[in-house]
Amino acid sequence: MTNDLTDNLFTLIKSLSSSEKRQFSLYVGRIGVNTDSKFLNLFKVMAKQSQYNEKLILEHTNISKQQLSNVKAHLYKQILVSLRLNPAHQSIPIQIREQLDFALILYRKGLYNQSLKLLDKVKSIALYNEEKNVAYEILEWEKIIESQYITRSIQNRAESLIKQTKQLSRLNVLASRLSNLSLQLYGILLKMGYARTEEETTAIRENFQKNMPKYNFKEMGFREKLLLYKAFLWYSFLTQNFLSSYRYSLKWIDLFNENPHMVSLHPVSYLKGNHYLLESLFFLNHVEIFEKVLLDLEVTVKDSKIPDDDNNAALSFLYIYSNKLNLRFMKGDFWGGELLVEKIQKRIHKYEDRLDGHHIMVFYYKIASLYFGNGENKKCIEFLKKIINNTSLKMREDLMCFSRILNLVAHYEAGLDYHLERLIRSTYKFLIRMNDMHEVQKEMIKFLRKLPDVSPLNIKEEFRKLHTTLKQYENHPYERRAFLYLDILSWLESKIENRPVAEVIKEKIAMRPR
Fold first, then answer.
1. Does the pLDDT value for residue 88 go beyond 70?
2. In whole angstroms, what is the distance from residue 184 CA to residue 182 CA?
3. Which end of the chain is more exposed for a tag (fewer CB within 10 A), N or C?
4. CA distance 251 to 274
5. What's the alpha-carbon Rg for the chain, to the nearest Å?
């Protein structure tokens, strides 16, 4: 067995809950001969290990080194079979697949009529639950059986099956094209972030229009509408049209509200929809609505309609705590965030094998921003280093760039001027390499580079000059991107007025129209 497969087996065993381990023991023990089998002994030894240790396995089992690979493969398969039989994992898609398997067994036994009845029943379940790919597969089997066993119970049976097949085929092709477009846009968003230039926006718009398939909205079901809303949502985020992203995230959630039985079937999409609704509200600065949606989400994740599994638990943590940090930024509430940061770090450790590195780095950037807003610049630098030193991670280019900009500012604020010149040079080179040298970044680097030579008597005047220069970019369609990540203007105002940056931000929030 390869190292990857060994790691997969060990990770699978460590992911099992106590009840799943008991279920596996009962499943294996149903046949007496298994109670002292090699794969069960391997399971018992590996379950006790905190790290995979092949030497201990060979010492505590009667498995030879030559047998070990095959025993591991058998154990991996048996665990998956046991999990499939566990009531906690008996989801609708699995039940549909099981009934389809039963129908095919009846067909191979020559019991055509029984097989057709079961196929028709499970097809209805599949269509109700928007499992249209498997519904299409069921239709193909119905046609195969009908070609061998001509029923007399339904008139025009062949025409009915052909019509259903054509309709499902159209919808499946539409869904495939929409999911391709959605995934492509999401990939661009994860790699690049928001469009940085008019050229990038034009390229994204042309690509979107070119790949958006023609559709009849009245014919579309839940699945097709959800994929359509996702595509428009990613497009809206990429082009920084946050009002549009709010509308489509709301359509996304409303779709689930209109089809409540789909929440338990697609909890990940439901949780994601709520997260992107919150992200849209964050960029639109609708504090009160944001707070209400976040509270509702915290209640929802505890509802029985959201399956209680490791994947949903990890996503619930990601979306709730990411937005708890965003709420603090919206309110200018930077003080006293240690308890929140401690909770986040503990849960990152708990779920790190289920969270991708990108999302963990986004957490670190937000935590760094929280500490920066509270004037704890050394703690801010500590978390930014986790991002900057992570050379193996391919995360959003814009976040990587602004991590370095914030790092420069935090070093200046912390009085670590002896590092500043070296950091400025490395940041400048990085921004050039990333093709992210926009006017805001250029002005910030120019300002920080000459700052050590500025007389203390003239320092405020330099802050005023930079503020005046940057203020003109606040509403620029592409330069404003910088202010989405770092409230540079509020920081400059705090330096000019000798006030904490948190106080300046809170004052601005209080002055916003409600």
1. no
2. 5
3. C
4. 11
5. 28
